[in-house]
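Researcher: Re-running this chain for the archive, since the previous output was lost when a drive failed. Same request as before.
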Amino acid sequence: MRCHTNGYLERLEALEAPTLLDFDTVGTDTSWEAALLAAGIAIEAARSGGFAIVRPPGHHALPTRQMGFCLVNNVAIAARALQADGVERVAIVDFDVHHGNGTEAIFADDDSVLYASLHQWPFYPGTGGPDEQGDTTVNVPLAARAGDADWLAAFDEHVGPAVARFGPDAVLVSAGFDAHEEDPLADMRVTADGFRELARRCNALGDNVAAVLEGGYNRATLPRLVTAALDGFAS
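Model: Regenerated structure tokens:
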């Protein structure tokens, strides 16, 4: 309820039969429980410095509706939970191949949360372009077919310095793996080594770092990509 309206949450809870909620998001009678578990695990990961391996993902979910396979915004809910615990400033770093429009919208007018995103652009959902910036909003659009060197250089030039200037008390990572060279939904060239390095750089941003799984749609490659990221977060 710190991130979504009561009316929207009530609609999710009331789902009974499989329902096409919008053109790319389905809800069923088990979706509410799944959303609660995913958000709860994200909160626990944020509090413990862990990696929440959850579905559904969350970063497209807006305050009033679902979007892009996402029902509730797990990383935003985790950030608000940390703030309720007494953490003042939270930075969210998003390296999913899609722009996290829902996360940006939730915190657009809140200077206590920095949102920084690396993503393919122009691409779904059509937001996060080069002119979409703010005091605590940093969008770093990348062209299709960008590889490890491009993503890491963009992180070093834009994301790392922005987080350092912001000075967060905690860092949450929206860790998406759909920028991988074998992912079916995008057109990027990031490798397992690239994700390991992105995670290592994220881990160096502060003393309190946690991550939440977002996209990644090749089930054959996703386990080793998450493993590579875990190696990076641990280094």
